[in-house]
Design a protein that fits this description.
alpha/beta, 18 helices
Length: about 500
């Protein structure tokens, strides 16, 4: 890293740390989740101002006048950072203290939220995304003095160059990762990027294909897919427009995850992300038509979630297990010849309940499940679960499954997380499905059709140590407690 780049990185890191310190002191922000939520809306409006300025400059070069999205009083230079002629904050015009919070809560947010209704016919537009984000968000910063400091710090961040945006996107990813490391509340937001990159490399998405994640969380899969395709494609106007507008699609149920996902994609260079705020599982898979299908599906559906009876009616194989419902959705949503890489709990391979057995049978008969990647314990920090990745192609039955056991015996944790080198051998061997000490091939004809058990059983004697840390055990206990509470609440609602 050269000195200017290192200086930029240090400046960004220090600014983010300073903002977190201010939020920590504020009465309204209670956790790492709140920190990234509040940082996100301020960052978004700062980004929007930079985007509008760029478009205005482009229009001026063509002799045209640019029509700003936001009305004058709601543009960043007017409400957030009015400046004097010498470029310093104009303290006579700048709101500080209670008046700033009142303006944000009662004028700015309602105005921005109104864009959703005004742009209902153009859901792919930046205007619609503005409306959707600010319909879901609340300003939690209680002190107008703290908010003033955060605004001033954000204003100093450079957004102008691609290097600036690249550095910002990396820092934003780090904040998402910190949320995931904080425990079960944040674990849903972060899939380790080395694993995502390995999945994408195997599936090799191309410009012109449609890529989909129906449980996109912080949009890590979509951001990495964008970077993968952008780096490898011919940089012409058609390809750039296709990649920006008609390639990457996502859905997300939870408010904060949706907002983080949109912001993450924007910082990675996607101007108006095609992410829909919805519960994918409320859609009946029998209604999915060819126009709704995708070439590539990348996803890590939620672990351990439970869905009620009315949602289960949308699926052919009834189960309360969220990941199993998502897997049915993915199979149905793939085009013939479409490819998928799905992260799922390893218990899916051996669960003996009727739904799991039926789903494994359906997967083997309707798709070529060519690869199962077995991940070590601790891959998902704080989640307390062991996972596998299912790689399959739709349209032909499975004849052989190639298994790969990733770094058996490797101890993963906060100080030694999964890295790209851990998956280097997997990516190389997977190209030819070669057998090795860590990989082997199973003929489907040898699988017991009474239970379709697909468990990972390395014939080479490599057994992964599966002892878990106390933190992982406690995290799983908390997750199970939460599941039980959700089920009981559901039962109460049914009889209330």
């Amino acid at each position: 890293m050269n000195p200017p780049e290192k200086k930029r990185k240090n400046m960004f890191e220090q600014t983010f740390k300073n903002i977190d310190d201010i939020l920590y002191k504020d009465a309204g922000a209670d956790s790492e989740l709140d920190y990234i939520e509040q940082t996100s809306w301020v960052l978004f409006l700062r980004y929007l101002d930079e985007l509008e300025n760029e478009k205005a400059d482009e229009a001026a070069l063509e002799g045209k006048k640019y029509q700003y999205i936001l009305d004058e009083q709601f543009r960043w230079p007017n409400w957030a950072m009015p400046k004097t002629a010498d470029g310093k904050l104009d303290h006579q015009k700048a709101m500080t203290g209670p008046d700033l919070v009142q303006f944000v809560d009662y004028k700015l947010f309602p105005y921005l939220a109104s864009f959703k209704a005004k742009s209902i016919d153009t859901p792919k537009s930046i205007e619609y995304k503005i409306g959707e984000i600010f319909s879901e968000l609340n300003n939690k910063i209680k002190s107008g003095y703290n908010l003033r400091e955060i605004i001033e710090m954000t204003d100093e961040l450079p957004f102008g160059s691609s290097k600036d945006k690249h550095e910002l996107s990396h820092l934003y990813e780090s904040k998402i990762k910190n949320m995931g490391n904080a425990g079960r509340n944040g674990g849903q937001y972060y899939t380790p990027r080395p694993l995502i990159r390995a999945i994408i490399e195997v599936l090799n998405p191309q410009v012109g294909e449609k890529i989909y994640d129906a449980a996109c969380g912080s949009a890590g899969f979509l951001c990495e897919a964008y970077a993968y395709m952008y780096d490898r494609m011919e940089k012409n106007t058609t390809n750039l427009k296709t990649l920006q507008e008609n390639t990457l699609y996502g859905k997300e149920k939870k408010n904060l995850a949706y907002i983080i996902g949109v912001m993450n994609m924007i910082l990675h260079g996607i101007e108006a992300p095609n992410i829909i705020h919805t519960n994918t599982l409320t859609e009946n898979i029998r209604d999915i038509q060819e126009k709704d299908r995708y070439n590539v599906i990348l996803a890590n559906p939620p672990f351990g979630g439970k869905e009620r009876k009315e949602v289960q009616q949308n699926f052919d194989i009834k189960t309360s297990e969220t990941a199993s419902l998502f897997l049915q959705h993915f199979i149905k949503s793939l085009k013939a010849g479409g490819r998928a890489g799905i992260v799922i709990k390893n218990t899916f391979l051996s669960n003996a309940d009727n739904a799991s057995v039926s789903l494994r049978k359906h997967l083997l008969e309707s798709c070529n499940l060519h690869t199962i990647l077995d991940m070590p314990a601790g891959t998902f920090l704080g989640a307390g679960v062991k996972t596998v990745v299912l790689f399959f192609t739709k349209g032909e039955p499975t004849k052989k499954i190639w298994y790969y056991q990733c770094v058996p015996g490797r101890s993963l944790g906060k100080t030694s997380p999964l890295n790209d080198d851990d998956l280097k051998e997997f990516k190389e061997l997977q190209k030819t499905l070669a057998d090795s000490d860590n990989s082997w091939t199973v003929d489907v004809s040898s699988i017991n059709t009474s239970n379709y058990d697909l468990s990972v059983k390395n014939p080479n004697g490599k057994v992964e140590q599966t002892f878990r840390s106390m933190d992982e055990i406690l995290a799983e206990m908390e997750a199970l407690d939460e599941e039980t509470s959700e089920i009981l609440n559901g039962i109460k609602e049914m009889f209330s």
